């Protein structure tokens, strides 16, 4: 866990790193999680609350040290997902990789794209767990 001072310094250092997609001016990103490796935000302008209480959501992850996937160098990804808050679970619908604000380098269907795909639980003590808990708190406060 980062100290409050280190976390504040990290957040301030990210000010030069845009939090929104250059292609979607209507996106409103709310940062849910920051550590030394990632900054993860939820696009609150494009949340779809479904009748069954689940949500269609879009996350943006900035990889602060960059990543390589099948030879592609990227530092940002957008993940379209279904989020269930009780019990906590998700279905990944699509993952897109980007370098900075450039065009998509890769766009792949997620493992939860098929109708009736099973819900996945986040790992204990995982970044996914922290992000999903924060998203659920934010979304329940907006109802």
Protein described:
By secondary structure, the chain is α+β, with helices and mostly antiparallel strands. 17% of the residues lie in helices and 41% in strands. The chain has 2 helices and 7 strands. The protein has helices spanning 4-13, 127-141; strands at 29-34, 38-43, 48-49, 55-69, 72-85, 88-98, 106-109. Strands 1, 2, 3, 4, 5, 6 and 7 form a 7-stranded antiparallel beta sheet that branches. Strand 3 and strand 4 form a beta hairpin. Residues 1-22 have low confidence and may be disordered.
Low-confidence stretches: 1-22
Beta-strand percent range: 35-45%
Number of strands: 7
Count of helical segments? 2
Mean pLDDT: 86
Query: Helix proportion of residues, in percent?
Result: 10-25%
Shape: globular
**Biggest pleated-sheet summary:** 7 strands, antiparallel
CA distance, first residue to last residue: 30 Å
Sketch the topology as an H/E string, one letter per element: HEEEEEEEH
Which structural category fits the helices and strands? alpha+beta
CA gyration radius, whole angstroms: 15 Å
List keywords for this structure.
single chain; 143 residues; alpha+beta; seven-stranded antiparallel sheet
């Amino acid at each position: 866990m980062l100290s409050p001072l280190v976390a504040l310094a990290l957040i301030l250092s990210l000010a030069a790193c845009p939090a929104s997609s250059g292609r979607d001016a209507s996106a409103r990103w709310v940062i849910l999680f920051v550590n030394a490796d990632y900054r993860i935000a939820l696009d609150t302008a494009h949340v779809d609350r479904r009748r069954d209480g689940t949500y269609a959501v879009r996350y943006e992850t900035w990889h602060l040290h960059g990543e390589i996937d099948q030879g592609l160098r990227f530092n940002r990804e957008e993940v379209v997902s279904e989020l269930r808050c009780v019990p906590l679970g998700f279905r990944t619908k699509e993952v897109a990789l980007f370098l900075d604000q450039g065009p998509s380098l890769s766009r792949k269907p997620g493992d939860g794209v098929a109708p009736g795909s099973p819900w996945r639980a986040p790992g204990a003590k995982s970044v996914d767990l922290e992000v999903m808990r924060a998203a659920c708190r934010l979304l329940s406060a907006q109802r």
